Fold this sequence. Notes:
Strand order of the largest sheet: 1-3-2
Distance between the termini: 84 Å
Radius of gyration: 25 Å
Low-confidence stretches: none
Largest sheet: 3 strands, antiparallel
Number of strands: 3
Shape: elongated
Mean pLDDT: 88
Order of helices and strands: EHHEEH
Structural class: alpha+beta
Helix content: 25-40%
Amino acid sequence: MTERRFTPREIAESRGVSIDTVRSWIASGQLRATNLARAASSKKPRWRVSESDLAAFEAARSNSPQPKPQRRRRRTGPPVREYV
């Protein structure tokens, strides 16, 4: 069975954003898409986004809590003797 592909319009409607927003994600490389236009030099691209690419995009933009950075311990050198 082949993987389902979505149009920018379908993505925009299901996510509550404009089509221009989806196209800007594609143009910036944030959302991976395939141009199915007949010629690569076509003035009007026909973008399709696979289910796996859409899932990867959403996972990258999820608001899951970031791991806390490890605290660096101070280096302790040899004890210092002071002579007065």
